[in-house]
Design goal:
Length: about 300
Amino acid sequence: MRILFTGGSGKAGRHAIAHLIEQGHRVTNADLVPLDIPGVDQLQVDLTDAGQVFNALSAYAGFDELDPGTGVPRYDAVVHFAAIPRILLKPDNETYRINTLSTYNVLDAATKLGINKVVFASSETTYGICFADGEKKPDYIPIDEEHPTVPEDSYAMSKVVNEVTARSFQARTGIDIYGLRINNVIEPHEYIQNFPTYFKKPELRRRNIFAYIDARDLGHMVDCCLKTDGLGYEVFNVANDDLSVDITTDEVIERFYKGLPVKHQMGTTETFYSNEKAKRLLGFQPKHSWRDVLE
C-alpha cells in the first residue's frame, strides 16, 4: 500500500513505520522532523495548516513517481500518529489545539481526496486514569472499549474529541476509520532500563493500568488495521497480553483494585487493558514481552 504516516519520527511512529516497510508498504513520513530509516519518503508538514495537509496528501511521494507520466498516485491509507504526546510539554490549550486541529485537517483532507482507510492514534488516557489528579480507579476490570471515557486533562480531552471527529467523518463518508487507544509504548531497550524498577515498585504502573505495548507489536497492530477492511468506525485498545509488573493478576487486584467488578475470570498474568477486541476483529497477535528479556 501507498501510505502517508504522520508523526513517524516519534517514539511510536518510527517503530511502526519500520514494520510497515518490512511488510512491503511504501510510506511517506509527514513530520516536522525527518526519520532516519532507509526506504522512507520524507515530507515536512505542519498538520495544523489545512492547506499543507491537503497538499501533502495529493503530492508525489518521490522522484520515481514522476517517471510513469500518469499524474500523482492516490494514497491508499493514512496513518495519523502526529500529536503533542502528553501533558506538561506545552501549555494545555496549545496541546488541545494542535491535537484536535491536526486530526480534523487530516480526516477532512483524506475523505475529500477519496482515501478509504484512516488509522489514527487515540490513547489509554481517554479512560481518565493516566493523568488524573490523584488516584482514579477504573469502573471495572479489565478495561475494554466500552469503559467510559471521561478524562480531566487537555491531552486526553483532545483524544476523546478526535474520536468523536473521526466517528463523524466516517458517518458522512462510509470509509474505514480505526482509532487505536494505545497503551504506554515500550521500546526494546526499555525492558532492561526500566522494568526492574517497576518490579520493585509496581505502584509506578498504576496510571498505565499495569499494561504496556511493545513498539514492534504496535507496528503489527497498524498493519492489521491496514489489512482489515469493512469495519467502518471502530476503536481498539492496543496492549500486550501480559502485565508490566512481575506479580500476578490476583496480587494486583488485591493491592490496587480490591472490590472492583471483574468482567471475566482473568488469567494469571493477563493484562488489565483488554486487547480481546483487536484480536477478534483484526487478528492482532502481539509477539513480544518483557519476559523474553528479563526471565
